[in-house]
Amino acid sequence: MTVQSLQPSIDAWTQSIEAISELVSSLVDGEWNRPTECPGWSVRDVVSHVIGGECEALGDPRPIHTLPRDLYHVTDETTRYLEVQVDVRRHHTGPEMTSELEYTIIRRSRQLRNERRKPEDVISYPLYGKTTLADFLQARVFDVWTHEQDVRRALRRPGNLDSPAAHIARDVLLTRLAKVIAEDAGAPRRSAFVFDVHGPVEFLRTVRVNDEGQGSVDSSPSLGPLVTFTLDWETFARLVSGRVRGRRVADRLKIEGDADVAERIITSFPLAH
């Protein structure tokens, strides 16, 4: 049997990746080519990325493939690494894409059902380095759910904003948020930032920067936050995952407090890979 504490992540992953499979099962050629909020990636490319990520989780050899030189969105080693699994499938037909996705889901589901390792066991994965199995599975859930939403927005078929995977994605995004505010945006020490998020996934969280400049997240309200951000869940997810810049969602984002620090935070979220 699968280790019980891994089961919520496995169930969330299953629901989300099967939702992607259902979304793309009947697409025509033009729909596969619709652009997503991931720079340079179409719906086909996003699905290719999901397939590639699960193939690597299965331990499959990486494709031997040379990338074209004119891919403007390939800017560093990480994007170059990710692009190989995408570009190698760039000319695959719709039926080829859906059949490979379905087969990959079958193989990966079997692997997860037969998982014998413990949640705390340390594994190595190229993009994440050394991490626990539990954290790795949560990262896969986050990746699959985020790309499910990319596909849904591209196809104008919203849904699953409050799915089990969405709640796992929230926790991953909040962890990312603490680093962005404390390190990337260089927020002042001994300061607090409140995120009041409403919608399908609703929460109030405070990011605190301590005396050493380290960030942490908790659910206790702050009496004197430097900035309070009020926004809906989908906008929060798009913003923190780098799908959209703050100026594009300004009408859905209310900011109270230090405007300069708020602007540094909003512009510090790295663009999506």
TrEMBL record:
GO terms for molecular function: isomerase activity. Residues 14-152 form the Mycothiol-dependent maleylpyruvate isomerase metal-binding domain. SUPFAM superfamilies: DinB/YfiT-like putative metalloenzymes. It comes from the Bacteria. Gene3D superfamilies: dinb family like domain. The keyword Isomerase applies. The keyword Transferase does not apply. Keywords: Isomerase. Residues 167-264 form the MDMPI C-terminal domain. This is Maleylpyruvate isomerase family mycothiol-dependent enzyme. It comes from Streptomyces boetiae.
